[in-house]
Design brief:
By secondary structure, the chain is an all-alpha fold. The protein contains 15 helices and no strands. It has one domain. It is 85% helix and 0% strand.
Length: 319
């Protein structure tokens, strides 16, 4: 996990440098750099949910084919609802996704540092960890309107409302301040650095770059590190001191599901690109990711529950 944390920080710094250099290029070249970085980040994020079916079978004791079918059914149902009901499905799915990302940041901190902050600080940490999502919405809602309209016309209209965007920025700033102060007092300087880096990415990088890099190079990378201890076969190899073999085992297990997801996504994006509409292509990609996030979040919640139960059982006085 420590290696993943180090590399995620390096990737964010690299993205900020590339974005700064790209800002000196002509507008057309800037757009190409933005789209390449955003697409690379989104694709890099796909593998982190590719063994969910195996994890769900491990958690429930059900056959992989059964839980895999249920997982796919939930994703397809979410996709249909997103495509047919507009904001009625989109708002709760977006809210659930934000909760998932925030809890992911909190669990990574718990796993890497052993720090168990108070409930109030935990909430602040979860919100602060989503700076690469919230800050681009707050400062660049108008720029993102095109992509948002391709997802839902009503969403595009919401992103242009300044009071709401200002409130989002204020909430994040408060959460970040609470987290930084609490982490500094607890001697968790890595947490302070992470909040500052995520905030810098959300505040300085182009909106699509901020989300893409954070999703693939931060959230997904750190989650994959957690999977090494959650996935049964990989965890067994890791416990035996075979770290490289554990990584290889997880990579092999995720290869085919990732390829399947890429092919489906490529087909949908190709259809959007054929209409010469980059916003529609990105909107399609985000809708697919949102549909997959719902069953993925359910599996991750199961992993978190097991992890937290194991921690509680190790506390003094636990039976």
């Amino acid at each position: 996990m420590t290696i993943a944390a180090i590399w995620s920080r390096r990737l964010v710094v690299a993205a900020l440098v590339i974005a700064a250099v790209a800002s000196l290029l002509p507008a057309g070249a800037q757009q190409v750099v933005v789209l390449v970085l955003a697409a690379a980040g989104l694709l890099a994020g796909l593998p982190h949910g590719s063994v969910d079916h195996r994890l769900a079978a491990q958690l429930t004791g059900r056959p992989v084919l059964v839980v895999g079918a249920c997982y796919a059914a939930v994703a397809v149902l979410t996709w249909v609802l997103l495509m047919t009901t507009g904001l009625l499905a989109l708002v709760p799915v977006l809210a659930l996704s934000l909760v998932h990302f925030g809890l992911g940041e909190l669990e990574v901190v718990r796993a890497t540092t052993g720090w168990r902050p108070s409930r109030a600080v935990s909430v602040a940490l979860a919100v602060a960890g989503t700076g690469a999502l919230l800050l681009p919405l707050a400062r660049s809602g108008v720029q993102l309107a095109g992509v948002a309209v391709s997802i839902s016309p009503s969403l595009g209209a919401l992103l242009t409302l300044w009071p709401g965007r200002a409130a989002v920025a204020a909430v994040w700033a408060l959460a970040a301040a609470v987290t930084v102060v609490a982490a500094a007092r607890a001697g968790q300087h890595g947490v302070v650095l992470d909040v500052l880096l995520v905030g810098a990415l959300g505040a300085l990088a182009p909106p699509l770059v901020a989300f893409g890099v954070w999703f693939g190079g931060w959230h997904a990378l750190r989650h994959c590190a957690r999977l090494l201890t959650a996935d049964g076969p990989s965890a067994a190899l890791l416990a035996a001191g075979e770290q490289r073999q554990a990584v290889r085992a997880l990579t092999r297990a995720s290869a085919l599901p990732t390829l399947a997801a890429v092919l489906v996504l490529a087909g949908l994006v190709t259809a959007a690109v054929s209409a010469a509409d980059p916003d529609a292509a990105l909107g399609t990609t985000l809708l697919v990711l949102l549909a997959l996030t719902v069953p993925h979040m359910l599996v991750v919640l199961g992993i978190d529950r097991v992890s937290n139960s194991a921690h509680a059982s190790r506390l003094p006085g636990a039976s």
